[in-house]
Amino acid sequence: MTIDGPEGAPHDRCMKKLLVAARANPKYWADLFRAKLPGHDILEQKPIEDESPIAYVVVGRPPAGLVRSIPGLELVLSLNAGVEHLLASGEVPDDVPIVRLVDDGLTEGMVEWVLAQTLSWHRNLTAYRALQAEQSWAPMHEKLAHERIVTVLGAGALGSPVAQLLVRVGFQTRVWSRSGRAVPGASAFKGRDSLHAAAAGADVLVNLLPLTSDTANVVDASLLNALAPGAFVINAARGGHLVDGDLIAALDSNHLSGAALDVFREEPLPSGHPFWRHPKILVSPHVAAPTHAHIAVAAMVDNIRRYERGEPLRNVVDRNRGY
Ligand SMILES: NC(=O)c1ccc[n+]([C@@H]2O[C@H](COP(=O)([O-])OP(=O)(O)OC[C@H]3O[C@@H](n4cnc5c(N)ncnc54)[C@H](OP(=O)(O)O)[C@@H]3O)[C@@H](O)[C@H]2O)c1
């Protein structure tokens, strides 16, 4: 059966099922998929007592047991860029590919957020806000971007464009990755042995790594101590990368001047957590790069089309690497 639709839909020959297991607004998501995949059967919840195959599932943090229970699963589409929860669940069969979310909305959002935090610290905007409260006219030494070193951990879908923009603004930019991936205009550092060299003397540290067994707790006292005195730390990846107590110690000893944290070991950040009230920490509620549904659906539909044409999928998770 060929069904005409907004996409021209030459590939919609089968009524394959797609289950949207989004926690928030599943109907909204499902309607976006219906508009883009008119020849598919889009479900908002798993039918009870119907064991017919569901080829695709779209998931963020699915309820325990859901993915395991899906009959005939062929492809898992993650609603997030990070897939550590999905992998940790162990529910996706080894032969079923997982594609993580990579789209222009996430990239644009992350680039904006990291640039905003970097420039705000670099040009002392937060410090002047505090001085204003005291009606204090106290100019600080204003450096130029080319006088600052920024190290970005991770040179992937997010780290790479972030580093590219930092280069364009004029920062001396370094990127650290597993494979030493090059970013034009930035110095590339490869592998664990070069981590401290990448951070040595840096004024700003930006974390954009995936959370894996290799990267957990990577931002610890030894890494923080390698940064320049008065440095600023930006964590936009996952809370599990940062050793909370080591950050607080480095701030309280005045080795670091501040930190902008968007992600936390426990989210929402529990009330009473020391980060909430720390005068040198900016807390934001995991909003650096939110998922924009219509952009995300377009990227996922592109991958479904590829799959159905027998073409290589984009952004497939490597289970051995964990990202
Ligand atoms: N706060 C938010 O709103 C938000 C939104 C979206 C994503 N995120 C977070 O951002 C993370 C990064 O996303 P992404 O799409 O850029 O991921 P990605 O494309 O998979 O890139 C990951 C980068 O990290 C490097 N890396 C991985 N393991 C490493 C290791 N052991 N040592 C050194 N480098 C390592 C990779 O090196 P290679 O290049 O050599 O592979 C790659 O450059 C996500 O996992 C998620 O946690 C946060």
Structure description:
The chain has 323 residues and is of the alpha/beta class. The chain has helices at residues 26-36, 84-89, 104-122, 125-133, 159-169, 195-199, 221-226, 244-252, 274-277, 293-309; strands at 17-21, 41-43, 56-59, 75-78, 98-99, 149-153, 172-177, 187-190, 204-207, 231-235, 256-261, 281-283. The strands form 2 sheets. Strands 8-7-6-9-10-11-12 form a 7-stranded parallel beta sheet. Helix 7 links the parallel strand 9 (204-207) and strand 10.
Summarize the entry for a quick read.
This protein has 323 residues and is α/β, with parallel strands linked by helices.
Q: Any idea what the radius of gyration is?
A: 22 Å
Q: What's the N-to-C terminus distance?
A: 37 Å
Runs in which pLDDT lies below 50 for 5 or more consecutive residues are 1-12
Classify the beta-strand content into a percent band.
Answer: 15-25%
Number of helices: 10
Secondary structure tally: strands: 12
H-E order: EHEEEHEHHEHEEHEHEHEHEH
- Shape by Cα distribution: elongated
Report the bound ligands by name, code or SMILES. NADP nicotinamide-adenine-dinucleotide phosphate
Q: Strand order within the widest sheet?
A: 8-7-6-9-10-11-12
Q: What is the arithmetic mean of pLDDT?
A: 95
Overall structural class, as computed from helix and strand content, comes to alpha/beta
Helix content: 25-40%
Outline the biggest β-sheet: 7 strands, parallel
